[in-house]
Amino acid sequence: MSIEYSVSVHNIGGNFGTWMKDEELAGSGTKVWVMHGTNNNLLDEYNSEYDFQTNNLNRTITLPYSCEGTGHTVYSNNFYCQVYASRYLGKYDLSTGMYTWVELPTLGQSLYDEYQWGYLNDVSGTAWGNGSFVDFEVDEYGLWVIHSDLSNNHNIIISRVDVNLVVIESFNTNFPKVDAGNAFMICGRLYVINSCIGEVTYIRYIYDTTDQTETNLLPTTIPFPSVQRSCSIGDTCPTYTNAFITGLDFAVAEKPDAVLYAWNCKYQEVYKPVFN
Predict the structure, then answer these.
(1) Does the pLDDT at position 237 exceed 60?
(2) 213: buried, middle or exposed (CB in 10 Å: 19+, 13-18, 0-12)?
(3) Of 89, 117, 129, 272, which has the maximum CB count within 10 A?
(4) Rounded-to-integer distance, Cα 177 and Cα 149, Å
(5) DSSP type of residue 152
(6) CA distances from 127 to 21, 37, 111, 133, 257 (A)
(7) Residue 145 belongs to what domain range?
(8) Looking at the predicted structure, is the pLDDT value of residue 75 above 80?
(9) What CATH number is attached to the domain comprising 267?
(10) What is the mean pLDDT of the chain?
């Protein structure tokens, strides 16, 4: 596999955010949903990718709870996120407005249970609101939750869940969550990028849930060509960087031209995985 940069779709919002399509649908005419920041209860809906690019907002949904981090997703007409400052996973029906919470009682919430970008952004001594403790991902096998906890030494745990957030199976990896720049799922495999910062990074680690094998990769094996953007990270001690990927999701419904949606320094980008 290789990763290619495809296109910058838009430039909206701040350093942190998520842009999503329903991962059971496909095409540029599919609705786009956007959530800004790492502590928000407002979900913006656009009727198409073109409407998103031209700022033609259809509606803003006010959720009955705020969402933590940027690891959200839309799947089967439901919006999924971690309920802010809690160990609950939230499911919100985009048609009816009905919602449910399901507790993940062992969910880790320390600095070492965040992605690398959340850890680096933390300048206040508290983890709340900065990183993604929970990352929802969708692939050919369905809905996944990427998280960690103390029982697995803050290493990544991959849990496959059904649409009602009932855990079907879980896999413990040996990769520290805080060392992951970001991650995504394809065909039951977890792909971890080495760093969220800088225009040159790479796929550092792969865990295959089908046979429970893990592989550590060299920087030259699968480079990840993040686009050079200029932004500052942190409030009291800002760090300036050439890239800052705080959102990364596989758009499985776009197959055979499946892509990755990324949020990079205020830019919404598309990357294309190429399978040999």
Answers:
(1) no
(2) exposed
(3) 117
(4) 9
(5) G
(6) 28, 14, 6, 9, 37
(7) 2-274
(8) yes
(9) 2.120.10
(10) 88
